[in-house]
From TrEMBL:
Mg(2+) 1 binds at residues 7, 138. InterPro entries: RNaseH-like_sf, RNaseH_sf, X-over_junc_endoDNase_Mg_BS, X-over_junc_endoDNase_RuvC. It comes from Acidihalobacter ferrooxydans. It catalyses: Endonucleolytic cleavage at a junction such as a reciprocal single-stranded crossover between two homologous DNA duplexes (Holliday junction). This is Crossover junction endodeoxyribonuclease RuvC. GO terms for molecular function: crossover junction DNA endonuclease activity; DNA binding; magnesium ion binding. GO terms for cellular component: cytoplasm; Holliday junction resolvase complex. Transmembrane segments: none annotated. The keyword Nucleotide-binding does not apply.
């Protein structure tokens, strides 16, 4: 299965594409859509367009994206929700199934601790995917959510087969 992972952000949106059979995964591509400052609507338009371009180029079967979490600033969470919506809409329009994961669940799945920091996630993406260097923080987070989905989907499929 080819999975597109997205770490949404209104200034930097990370992406990661992996191929996975649930047991082993291979890095296909990763990077960041750097949006910078400026008015929000044009940045959301770029997220929509560039995520759509990624879907067209890499032809994933699923989108895995981090859920919005409420930290201290409600306005920031709202803007993050807009960025997620732009990315998700591009994928849904292309016919992808969308799967959402809490940030703590992603970190727990790939690092073993829901409180892992960005450097730990970067290190684990390098190790788990056999990369020559650690990806940028936002790209690593996107790869991590894609890997979380690969593992979760594999486990759910196995449980479903046993339950029959």
């Amino acid at each position: 299965m080819r999975i597109l992972g997205i770490d949404p952000g209104s200034r930097v949106t990370g992406y990661g594409v992996i191929d996975s059979d649930g047991r082993s995964s291979r890095h296909v591509a990763s990077g960041c859509i750097r949006l910078g400052a400026g008015e929000l609507p044009p940045r959301l338009g770029r997220i929509f367009t560039e995520v759509g371009d990624l879907v067209a180029e890499y032809a994933p079967q699923a989108l895995a994206v981090e859920k919005v979490f409420m930290a201290k600033n409600a306005a920031s969470a709202l803007v993050l929700g807009h960025a997620r919506g732009a990315a998700m809409t591009a994928c849904v329009q292309a016919g992808l199934e969308v799967f959402e994961y809490a940030p703590r669940a992603v970190k727990l799945a790939v690092v073993g601790s829901g409180a892992a920091d960005k450097a730990q996630v970067q290190h684990m993406m390098r190790m788990l995917l056999g990369l020559t260097r650690a990806p940028a923080a936002d790209a690593a987070d996107a790869l991590a959510v894609a890997l979380c989905h690969a593992h979760t989907h594999s486990t759910r499929s196995a449980v479903s087969r046993v339950a029959r």
